[in-house]
Amino acid sequence: MGHKVKILILTNGEYGDYAFCENTEVYDCIVCADNGLKHAKRLQLKPDYIVGDLDSCSKEDWLYYKEQGVHVDVYPSQKNETDTEIAVEKAIALGGTEIDIWGGLGSRFDHTLANVHLLLGALRRGVKLRLCNPQNTVQLMDKKLRIQGKKGDILSLLPLTPLVRGVYTTNLAYAVCGGSFEIGKPYGVSNVFLEEWVEVSIEEGLLLVIQVRDE
């Protein structure tokens, strides 16, 4: 098994009181997408790269980091990619095998859904990508996934393809054994951890796995 390269991307979504922003030392590299800079500054993090059209962040913020030697890639505002997509491409180009996006879920549903679509592009290239905010951690699977958590945590399973077949779960209150999930019927919502880890496997399709902190 090759060396895992963990990269953190900060975007300008929801962070709440920043309580979920922990263990930054586990990341090999930090990339800021546009006004993710604002959150980096509040968290006193120095990113390795800043990317995007920089239309939503203050000039003061990106000059602050540029003066510290942080590499800044400025893109035109008229482009086909979102700033978050550019950051993901940067992270993959840097060799990222596990990428967490903080703030990739927020009040702009169009941006949230666009970021969910980025999960597929990463998965197709063998990259584990997660979207994280104070209430949710979202990832996409096509074979098998083990999720760490706490007893009583909520886990929702939703199909991203028309049909997901051969679904098996371990350590969930409502067990699934060889089941199928069909898009348009969200009956995988709000399952519950029975132990501190859960395993989900599928035989066909793509399944969104959403770990919820419902506090």
Question: Which structural class is indicated by helix and strand composition?
Answer: alpha/beta
SSE sequence, one letter per element: EEHEHEHEHEEEEEEEEE
Query: At the fourth CATH level, what is the homologous superfamily of the largest domain?
Result: Thiamin pyrophosphokinase, catalytic domain
The amount of helix comes to 10-25%
The protein's oligomeric status is: single chain
Q: CATH top level of the largest domain?
A: Alpha Beta
Rg, nearest Å: 18 Å
What is the typical, i.e. mean, pLDDT?
A: 92
Biggest β-sheet: count, sense, barrel? 10 strands, mixed
CATH topology-level name of the largest domain: Rossmann fold
**Principal-axis shape:** elongated
What is the spatial order of strands in the main beta sheet? 4-3-2-1-5-6-7-14-9-12
Report the CATH architecture of the largest domain. Answer: 3-Layer(aba) Sandwich
Q: What's the β-strand tally?
A: 14
> What count of structural domains?
2
Poorly predicted tracts of residues: none
Number of helices, counting only DSSP H or I runs of 4 residues or more: 4
Q: How widely separated are the two ends?
A: 37 Å
Q: What would your notes on this structure say?
A:
Helix 4 links the parallel strand 5 and strand 6. The strands form two sheets. Strands 4-3-2-1-5-6-7-14-9-12 form a ten-stranded mixed β-sheet, sandwiched between helices. The longest helix is centred in the middle third of the chain and has 16 residues. It has four helices and 14 strands. The chain has two domains: 129 residues, 3-Layer(aba) Sandwich (Rossmann fold), CATH 3.40.50; 69 residues, Jelly Rolls. The N and C termini lie far apart (37 Å). With 215 residues, it is an alpha/beta fold.
